Every structure is written in C-alpha cells, then in structure tokens.
Amino acid sequence: MTEQSLLVSAIIAVYNCEAYLADAIRSVINQTYRNIEIIVVDDGSTDNSKGVALQFAPPVRYHHQPNGGIAAAWNQGIKLAKGDFFAFLDADDLWTDNKIRQQMNVISENAQCDIVFGHVKQFYSQELNEEERQKIWCPDDIIPGVSAITMLIRLDSFYRVGWFDTQWRKGIFNDWYLRAGECGLVSHMLPQLVAQRRLHQKNHGIVHRDKSIDYVRMFRASLSRRRSQAHD
C-alpha cells in the first residue's frame, strides 16, 4: 500500500464564516498530498457559507445541520468521513501546502505514532484596522501547535479516545487531548510550520471569553478520571 493510497479526511467546521471559508478550502485543495476528501460541516450558518462551500463541489462534500457548536460539527464530519486518517481545519484558518504530506511521512514510518502535530503561526486578518489589532495579541513567533488545526490522527486512534464533548463551548480540543493522554496515545511534533491561525473579531475564543471556567471544569474532570484509573 503506497502512502498516497491512504485517504485523509479533512473536516472543516463553519459557522457564519463566508469571508474566510474559500481561503480555508483552497489551502486543503492545494495540499501536495493528493488523496484527501474535504468535508464542510455547516453548523447552522445564516450567512452565505453554503454558497461558498458549494463553489468547490466537487471535491468538497457539504453538510448542513442545526447550530450545535464546534464539537457537534466535528463529530458529524467524522461520521461522514471515509478516510483512514482525520484532520481538522477551522473555516477561518489555513494549512501550509505540505502539512498533510509531512505528517503522513512521519505517521506512515512509525506504527507506534497515533498523532502528528506541527508548528503554527498567528496572523491578523486583513480587514482589521490598527485600533482593532491593538486589542488582539498576535505573537510574532512560530510556536508548537497542539490543536485541532495542526493535528493528523489515525482513525482507530481517534476512536480509542472517543467523540468531542458537546457540553463545552471553549477548550473543546483541550478536553479531547486530555482524554487522549489518559488513553496513552503517542504524538509527534513536527518542527515545520503546518498551519496559520487567523485573528479577527469573531474568533471563537473571543466570542466565548465568558466560558473560560470550562477549562477548570475539564481539568478537574481529567484529574478525577486519572484518580479512578489509578484505583482500578
């Protein structure tokens, strides 16, 4: 079985992100690794996100559902996926052209590796004026990215951990990754840049700033699970 015969499912969750969605889709289409299916899950958008997505069909497969949050959209994308591997991209972010190829090179050569991450760079969206930029911190450095948009994961490894938890509105991936650690999944961090995160006024973390208490709750839940495992 050759590397290119392994199908990667790229899952893009979108909610009212028509201004950026086309760029995100193009960053997947432009991957040097070619065997990728693209699934756009529209989580109840009221803008023209559907129209943007359908401009790329095929290869894009489009699915609409009532608004239920990012976790629900990611989970639906996984249910629709046909790939051997899963990768995720937010509708306002971008992948570098070699993201999937570099990650597949690592994971196909290491049977013990469940997940491959890479580095990420943040950037200001072009519509922000200087005053708006001053209110949003954008680090200059390229940093290690332990996040959904930098991840490539084996299908069977994902199911060892289970679905994204829909109770959270913030830190959804953090909760899932805590559970991945509890399951003993092995990850690798590429030194290369694999994703770019767009900063704008409607970023999920900004909109749901009031949900920061979720982080405390999910870390407490993880600690409780680890204690229970230790006593089993």
Task: Tell me what the structure shows.
The chain is α/β, with parallel strands linked by helices and 232 residues long. It has a single domain (3-231), classed as Spore Coat Polysaccharide Biosynthesis Protein SpsA, Chain A (Alpha-Beta Complex), CATH 3.90.550.10. The chain contains nine helices and nine strands. The model has no long low-confidence stretch (mean pLDDT 88).
Topology, element by element:
Layout (H helix, E strand, L loop, with lengths): L7 E7 L3 H12 L6 E8 L5 H6 L5 E6 L4 H11 L4 E6 L3 E2 L3 H11 L5 E10 L5 H5 L8 E3 L6 E3 H7 L10 H11 L4 E13 L4 H4 L5 H19 L1
Parallel strand pairs: 1-2, 1-4, 2-3, 6-9
Antiparallel strand pairs: 4-8, 5-9, 6-7, 6-8
Helix pairs in contact: 7-9
CATH topology: Spore Coat Polysaccharide Biosynthesis Protein SpsA, Chain A
From the coordinates shown, what is the CATH architecture? Alpha-Beta Complex
> What does the main sheet amount to?
9 strands, mixed
Judged by helices, strands and strand pairing, the structural class is: alpha/beta
Instruction: Report the total helices.
Output: 9
Low-confidence stretches: none
- Beta-strand content bin: 25-35%
Shape: globular
Helix content: 25-40%
Total domain modules: 1
Keywords:
232 residues; alpha/beta; 25% strand; Spore Coat Polysaccharide Biosynthesis Protein SpsA, Chain A; 9 helices; 9-stranded mixed beta sheet; single chain; 9 strands
